[in-house]
Each structure stands twice: as C-alpha cells, then as structure tokens.
Specification:
This protein is of the alpha/beta class. The chain has helices spanning about 15-30, 30-40, 70-80, 90-95, 115-125, 140, 150-160, 180-195, 200-210, 215-225, 225-235, 255-275, 295-300, 340, 350-355, and strands spanning about 45-50, 50, 65, 85, 105-110, 130-135, 160-165, 170-175, 240-245, 280, 305-310, 330. The strands form 4 sheets. Strands 1, 4, 5, 6, 9 and 12 form a 6-stranded parallel sheet that branches.
Length: about 350
C-alpha cells in the first residue's frame, strides 16, 4: 500500500485530468525524452499492485491500484525500447554498487501478494522473460490482517449514506455522488491512519463494514494468494519473494521493538513456508510518515539487502549508501496509457516532485 491510506493517489477528477495533461504534455513536446538523454540516474524501481482484466472499468476509490494485463506487457516493452534492462532486485543492488556506464536498470515489484499476480501477471512476466519481486505479508494470508482499504472502498461504493463513530461521536457520511464517495473514502482513511492507534485500526474498519454486511476477511481471502499459490509463484525462475511485514502495518506508528518484530517475524514465516529467507523488504505504505530513518536502520540491522519505499524517485550512485531506503515509481491504474507512463521513466517528474533533489532518504 502506497501512501496515507492510499489517499495521495486517490485523485479527484480535476487533479487527475491536470496530471494527465502535464504528463501528456511532457510526452508530446518531447521534453521528457530530451531530459532522459541528460539524466544521470541508474534506473528505476516500479511499484505494481493488482493486474486484472477489466481494471479500466474499476471505479473509485481503489482504481489506481489495478492495471490491465495488456498494460503490464506494454510497460515492460516500453522500458526495453527506452534502453532499460529489466533486472531482479539482487542485480539492481549490484548495479548500484558497481555502476556501468550508460547501463539503465528497471526492477519490477508487486506489493501485497494478490491472486491476480499469479493468474495474470506471471504469464506475462514469463513470456517477456522479465524478473520481478512479489512482496508478501503473511498476516494477509493467514487472516491476522486484512485489506482494510478494500473493505472501505466496498463500503463507500455500496452505500449512499452511512455513519461512523469517531472521537466526538457519530458522523454521517453522504456518498450519493462519485465525488462525495472519493471525499468520504479519503476522510475516513486519513482519520484511521492519523487518529486511530495502529493496533485498533483494522478492527475499527472490520466493525464498520460488518454493520453494512461487508466481510473484510472474505474480501481478503478472495484477493490474496494462499500459501500454495505463493509457492507456485515462487517456483518461477523469474520471481523473488520479499517481505512486507507480518501484518501490513504502518511501522512508524509502532514502538521500535514491535516494528522490529513485524519485520523479523515476516521474514521468519516466509522462510518457514517457502524454504528461503527473503532478502528484500517493502515497507507497507512506504511514505515518510510510515517509514523513515528508524525503519531504514531496522531493515539494515535485520540484514535485508534491499528495502523499498513508495517515495517517488529514480536511482543514483548515491543510493549505494541507502540500500534500505530506495525510491519507487508507482504504476497507477488511472494513467494506463504510454503518454502518461512514459514521462515517469525519464526521471523528470520525480525530480520536480523531490524539489530537484536526487535523494529523499531522511
């Protein structure tokens, strides 16, 4: 999961249109291609979540998390046309530590372990001979954690009105229009992420959904790979399995020892189930309020070779000293056209987003 409750990617219609115009403008004018020729970056790590037919028809609020299978294939092909070598995270690490002139790398990563990664993404990855890493949280498989944002999304889409009890009592939500559904979803997510203790958040969502006959646990079981399915995924020579904490938590909201246990336990359980300790970690949510220096140090102390955030950015030689704080570019389901995606591979949009700084590791 990418941002505060994914709300940073939950763009309203106006913002979405503006972003599309900017990206398309960079593509049509050729500015991003000109910048790419001058860009000193070593490459990029891309973030995917769901890959499923009909993703173009998925309505708010979680549409940004799903892409069509054909678009995944198109992304891989576009990267290669642009001179990127698609590599594993192991090879990416070696390439950052020992850069080769004019070599540009791209690593593909999939968060959460959705069944559609096995059903729809894996055949494309194998056909394209494209390595990828799937980050799995054992709690989502075993039922100790749930896809709470999917439950909230189902609630908002199902209901025209509902009531949520906050700190000051019941609050009525009006979800009668698409824009109001977006607003309700974002308001709820931000309240849960910033006002409700981490250990209570998933329970609060489950209770709210239960009142309106939405089973978050069932949503999770239907969406997330079982252990047997994850083993089938891991058997592919193109797939590496990485850790995603035990229960898909906001690490920065936890005491340090609890955060350490979440990371360490996920690695131990994955090793027990799959026969190999994961070498790579993706921080759930991954934005600065969820993963920062303390979490980067924990990952390093727990001997992960690479750990990835959701902070936007390209990779540079300076990242060799920050291998547990690597940036990623999200492949957003709201922008499934090459004219929107291609400029992101140039490094120009992320440079602007980071205030012209190459590193964002604080």
């Amino acid at each position: 999961m990418d941002t505060p409750g994914k709300s940073a990617f939950l763009m309203g219609t106006t913002r979405t249109r503006l972003t599309r115009k900017i990206l398309a403008g960079l593509s049509i004018t050729g500015l991003e291609r000109i910048y790419q020729q001058l860009d000193p970056s070593l490459g990029v790590v891309l973030t995917f979540h769901r890959v499923q037919p009909g993703a173009n028809d998925i309505r708010i609020p979680n549409a940004h998390l799903s892409i069509e299978p054909d678009f995944l294939a198109g992304v891989i092909q576009l990267l290669r046309r642009r001179g990127f070598e698609i590599v594993s995270l192991d090879e990416l690490k070696r390439g950052i530590e020992n850069p080769i002139a004019e070599r540009r790398m791209a690593a593909l990563t999939f968060d959460d372990g959705f069944k559609d990664n096995l059903q729809h993404a894996l055949p494309i990855l194998e056909a394209e001979a494209a390595p990828a890493t799937v980050f799995s949280a054992p709690g989502l498989i075993e039922g100790t954690a749930a896809l709470w944002w999917e439950g909230l999304g189902a609630l908002v889409m199902q209901q025209d009105y509902f009531t949520f009890t906050g700190e000051k009592g019941p609050v009525a939500f009006d979800c009668t229009t698409p824009s109001r559904k977006e607003e309700c979803f974002q308001s709820l997510v931000e309240y849960l992420v910033f006002r409700v203790p981490e250990e209570q958040m998933q329970t609060r969502v489950a209770e709210l959904c239960w009142l309106y006959k939405i089973d978050v646990d069932e949503i999770t079981r239907e969406a997330i790979m079982t252990w047997d399915e994850l083993r089938q995924m891991a058997a592919s020579p193109y797939i590496t399995i990485g850790a995603h904490t035990m229960n898909h938590v906001h690490l920065a909201r936890l005491p340090e020892e609890t955060a350490r246990e979440e990371i360490q336990q996920s690695a131990l359980v994955l090793e027990a189930e799959l026969g190999r300790r994961p070498r790579h970690l993706a921080y759930p949510y991954g934005y600065p309020h969820a993963a920062a220096k303390r979490e980067f140090d924990l990952a390093k102390d727990l001997r992960f070779d690479v750990a990835v955030t959701t902070r936007p950015g390209m990779l540079f030689e300076d990242h060799r000293d920050h291998m547990t704080a690597l940036p990623r570019i999200s492949v957003n389901g709201l922008y499934q056209k090459n004219r929107y995606f291609a400029p992101l591979t140039s490094g120009l949009p992320s440079l602007l987003a980071n205030g012209f700084s190459r590193l964002n590791v604080a």
